[in-house]
Amino acid sequence: MAQIIDGKSIAATIKSELQIESAAFISRTGTIPHLALLLVGDDPASQVYVRSKAKTCEEIGFRSTILNLPATTSQEEVLDVIHSWNGNKLIHGILVQLPLPRHISEHKIIETISPSKDVDGLHPENMGRLVLGLPGFVPCTPAGIIELLSRSGISAQGKHAVVVGRSNIVGKPIANLLYQKSPQANAVVTICHTGASGTLRDFTRQADILVAAIGVANRITADYVKEGVAVIDVGINRITDVAKKTGYRIVGDVDFESVLPKVSAITPVPGGVGPMTIVMLMRNTLEAAHRFTRNATINR
Prior knowledge:
The protein is of the alpha/beta class.
């Protein structure tokens, strides 16, 4: 019987832990962790994500600030906001909701966020620290995947982990996390992408742990996996479903029903990796506040 990894339940446990840690931190330091969220444009999905992040801040005991700018906002105006937040001592974490309008460079915006406030873990300095195995902010979804594996009793030690996808947000950082020499990782890692010779299944069928992050609905079917594999499905895809009120339903990159009989463990979509992303963002925000108070004490 396959283990269905319940991301909602694990995220709820971490959220409860963070509530306790946050209350103790605020009581001890008088500092309330503060996350600033910038949204440019009126994309409905992005608005939902930002509101959800702000709501979770409130539930844990953090402050949050949401700034929603019109899609016509210039890159310089966005950079001005980032510079202002970088210099604001009451703000500990900065998150710019992606994607941005096409006329704004995501790389330029991310590079402008202070690494000490980059709670999304996407700044080149934090990415570099991840590659080197040094402390830094880790991108939230990959951090959540490692937490899911650990709290589900799935060891990556010496296993062959195959990552399908090479994005800066998931593919590259999770590959780096999985091969780190640490108790939660130490795997042998293969990254699959469109440049590979042969077929995708030639690689995925070797996986002891398979991370699917390609953004193609139901791409990984039963013939792509071997018996006993642990599958982490990062995909969030809308497909038409006339039986639903919305006219669509959410599925992952893995064809859940066909793969289920072969796996030892699998994350569902929704309810698997998704809930972990926000609680990892909250963990990073609390850590940013910790670092700020430590530095303030040292510099007195």
